[in-house]
Design goal:
With 208 residues, this protein is of the alpha/beta class. The chain is 40% helix and 12% strand. Strands 1, 2, 3, 4, 5 and 6 form a six-stranded parallel β-sheet that branches. The protein is globular and about 45 Å long. The protein binds zinc ion.
Length: 208
């Protein structure tokens, strides 16, 4: 079974990581986040859908993709969304030497700055971190999620994903999607429905 909602004990074990966005009773904000882009056509689709609902989101971009698609990166920024660091080449913290991993984060940070903006924080690819790295990054804002849509999992039924996400959605939720080729078959069905659902429920998607 695919677990869409993070078990409640996880944030208690890793309190330094951010699992939920800020929200206020008068402003029931939710946070749509998109990892692994930018990717031509798919990121464009996401930007169009967000625009239909005047929704703002956060894109955890891969540094190399930002360099490969600078105009698309500019488009994300100009549309008022924020950008976070997802390493230079989608590094896997469990398989890499720590210095090489930190270097990938640093390089991605430099790419983001070249676009004239500040990264809003770091999201580790695959959600993987080493405990030693976790100890070293006190100053680094590490943003996880509360709802994993599972859009990259081609075996999931879109209707199941939609109903699980609807059930889990609440003010402060951070949802993870992927603007990648692999996720697109599910993303293109799930994203418009969830944006519409938030609109109906008075939940406001904003950027982190
Ligand atoms: Zn990723």
């Amino acid at each position: 079974m695919f677990i869409h909602q993070i078990p409640s004990f996880i944030p208690l074990v890793f309190p330094k990581l951010i699992w939920e966005g800020s929200h206020h009773p008068d402003e029931p904000n939710v946070y749509f986040t998109f990892d692994d882009g930018p990717c031509p056509e798919i990121t464009n689709f996401v930007l169009d859908e967000l625009n239909k609902y005047r929704a703002k989101a956060t894109f955890f971009c891969i540094g190399k993709n930002m360099l490969d698609f600078p105009e698309l990166t500019q488009q994300i920024i100009q549309s008022g969304h924020s950008i976070g660091n997802h390493t230079m080449h989608h590094g896997n913290a469990w398989k890499m030497d720590e210095n090489a991993y930190l270097d990938q984060i640093q390089k991605c940070e430099e790419v983001i700055r070249r676009f004239g903006i500040q990264s809003i924080g770091f999201r580790p690819p695959y959600g993987r971190l080493k405990p030693s790295f976790y100890q070293k990054t006190k100053a680094c804002k590490i943003i996880m999620w509360s709802i994993l849509t599972g859009d990259y999992n081609v075996r999931l039924d879109p209707q199941h994903v939609i109903s699980s996400c609807k059930k889990a959605l609440k003010p402060g939720s951070i949802l993870v999607f992927h603007d990648s080729m692999k996720a697109f078959p599910l993303l293109k069905i799930v994203l418009p429905v969830l944006l519409d659902y938030c609109n109906q429920q008075g939940l406001k998607p904003i950027s982190l």
